[in-house]
Structures are given as C-alpha cells and as structure tokens.
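Lab notebook, design round three. We kept the backbone fixed and only want residue identities now. Task for the bench partner: fill in a sequence for the structure below.
Input structure tokens:
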C-alpha cells in the first residue's frame, strides 16, 4: 500500500505547513506539470474562442473579491504555487478559474460553445454506503474525462494542513484542489460539470476553490453546508460522501441548488441534471452533449443493477471501467480527442484509495495516503 507504484507513473507531491508553504512546495515540485497546464489552457482558449490570455486573466480577476471574502488563505496558497513554479499570481489564479472561463466563453460562442464548455472536462461518479458493502465501509469512485493533452499535467497530491484535515487527490498540478479524492476525516468528494445557458456568478467561489472549501471540513454536514455556502460560480454537481454512510448529490445552478439523496445505499451522477426542478427558469440545460446523456443512463442502469450487501471496491471499479456499450464515449472513455485520464475509488472508513492513471480498464493501484511512508 505504499506510494512507490503510483510514483512510477505520476509525480507524488507531499506538501505541509501554512497555506503559503503548501503552495510553494506544490509549485516547486509540480513546476513542469503546471507549465503544461497553463500552455494547454492558453492554447485551448485561443483556439476555441479567439481570446488571448490577457482577457482570461481579466475575467478571472473578477473572482478575487469572492475568494478573499470567503477563504482568504487560499489566495496565500495560490501565491505560494505561483512563487514555487515561477509564474505570476494572476496566471495561477486564472488556471484555477478554468471551468468558469469555459462556461463564460460558451455563452457567445455559437457552434463552438460545445468545445469551449469541454474546457471543463467530463466525469462519472458512483458510491455505495456501508449497508451495501461486504466490508461494512462506505466507498465512492470517480472517473475524470478530459483531452489527452492533459495527461502530462497529472500529479498525486497529499496535503497536510494545520488545523484542518489532510487531503489526498489525483489531478492537474497547479490546482488548489480537485475532486476524486478524500480527506483524513473520511469526507469524499466527487464532481462533474453541468451545462446551462445561465451566467456564471462572480460572487461565488470558482470551482477549484469550492472543492477545497468542501474538503477542508471534518464532518459530512459541514461539508454539505460548505458546498452550498461556496455559492459556486459555475454549474456543477458535487457528490459529497461521509464515513457514516451518508451520500448526496448537490446539483448547483445559478444562485441555487437541488439536493438528491442516495437510493438503497447507492448513488451516482454524470454530466446531466437529475433534479426534476432544475435548472430553474428562465435558464435551461444545454443539449450539446447527447453522448453524455447516454453515459448518464448507462451509469444509473449499472448502479441500479447491483444486488445484495456483499459488494466491494471491485464492483465500483467494474462500473467505472465499463465500455460494453456506447464505446468509445462510454463510462470508461476512449474517444480520439477525449478520454478517461484518471479514476479513483476511495474507502472512506479504511482511508484507502485505489487509483488508475489512464483508463481504469487497465487496472488500479492501492494507496494509503495518510500513513507516513
């Protein structure tokens, strides 16, 4: 259960101390990967929208007051990442507003809106609580789907904080936090983008900051409350899971949300609204992604088909590795320009993670992120 195997595939970054110190270690250790992330975002925005990086930085700067009001310590961490990696604060802050840039640019993009929105990526999440597992533990899993160009950006982060839970996650370097991880209090967080024609909310936290706001909590109720209080700037579903077996989807929309509780000890979500009253008028869900709808249906069908109370992490891995239908845009995506780049399954009671770097059908590695190595 050591980190040796995963370190053979992607960098493992351990960061601790103050927020600035955590950021500086992150930036220093992930300098190369952060550079690729920035280059990818700059190229993606220019190609899909025609806007330059200066425009991106200007839009992102409008979120600084919201972050300063809710969690000013995160700005210190962004400065640490910037100083460690050798970039400006503005560059790293803008990188952490990637999802909001995609949703903002999509509103005026016409036929290129689909491409602009996919700057945010796509995902599938699934969970089982203790009433359904042979181990009596609660576990959840997530696929992160993104362009192949993001592969060189991936790191495994372990953050040891002062006065807050430790956090472990796999994702792009330079981000203050990502989904598809857990904290040392047993809080798990999944996420997937949702798409509407509503504006982004400049009074809310950008998504990556909202992820961190949630993962900084010790209890399930506090994590759910943090998700709502974040007033996340973009449309997103948060799947929040706790070690007691509670799991909910929080479908966030413009200045509102809907909550969906698990059914029969299981829960899942992909990139489509499921709450019957969302999104609220006058806004509507965009219909550019019918293949995402098919993935959502398939995910729900597989989860609904699970039987009994002797299930294990292997059952979640099998679902996340599925491409028996809808291939290559299946749950385990193998599309030419878009694929599943990481997959994680987390046991929230045993504090164990199973991590796949690349398509999950190629196998997972077991990781114990919070035990000193």
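Proposed sequence:
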């Amino acid at each position: 259960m050591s980190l040796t195997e995963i370190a053979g595939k992607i960098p493992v970054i351990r960061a601790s101390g103050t927020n600035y110190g955590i950021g500086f270690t992150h930036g220093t250790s992930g300098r190369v990967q952060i550079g690729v992330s920035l280059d990818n975002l700059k190229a993606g925005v220019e190609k899909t929208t025609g806007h330059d990086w200066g425009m991106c930085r200007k839009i992102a700067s409008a979120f600084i007051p919201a972050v300063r009001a809710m969690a000013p310590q995160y700005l210190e961490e962004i400065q640490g990442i910037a100083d460690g990696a050798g970039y400006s604060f503005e560059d790293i802050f803008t990188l952490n507003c990637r999802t909001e840039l995609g949703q903002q640019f999509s509103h005026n993009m016409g036929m290129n809106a689909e491409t602009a929105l996919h700057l945010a990526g796509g995902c599938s999440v699934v969970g089982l609580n203790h009433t359904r597992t042979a181990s009596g533990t609660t576990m959840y899993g997530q696929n992160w789907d993104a362009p192949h160009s993001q592969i060189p950006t991936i790191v495994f982060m372990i953050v040891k904080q002062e006065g807050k839970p430790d956090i472990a996650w796999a994702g792009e370097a330079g981000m203050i936090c990502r989904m598809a991880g857990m904290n040392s209090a047993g809080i798990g967080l999944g996420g997937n983008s949702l798409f509407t024609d509503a504006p982004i909310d400049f009074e809310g936290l950008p998504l990556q900051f909202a992820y961190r706001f949630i993962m900084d909590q010790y209890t399930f109720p506090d994590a759910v409350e943090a998700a709502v209080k974040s007033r996340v700037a973009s449309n997103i579903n948060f799947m929040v899971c706790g070690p007691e077996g509670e799991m909910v989807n929080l479908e966030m929309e413009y200045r509102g949300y809907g909550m969906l509780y698990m059914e029969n000890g299981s829960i899942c979500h992909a990139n489509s609204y499921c709450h019957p009253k969302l999104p609220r008028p006058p806004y509507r869900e965009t219909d550019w992604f019918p293949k995402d709808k098919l993935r959502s249906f398939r995910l729900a069908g597989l989860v609904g088909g699970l039987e009994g109370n002797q299930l294990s992490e292997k059952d979640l891995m099998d679902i996340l590795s599925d491409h028996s239908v809808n291939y290559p845009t299946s749950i385990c995506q193998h599309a030419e320009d878009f694929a599943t780049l990481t997959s994680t399954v987390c046991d929230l009671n045993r504090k164990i993670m199973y991590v796949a770097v690349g398509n999950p059908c190629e196998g997972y590695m077991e990781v114990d992120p919070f035990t000193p190595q």
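Keep this in mind before ordering anything: Residues 194 and 236 are 5 Å apart (CA to CA).
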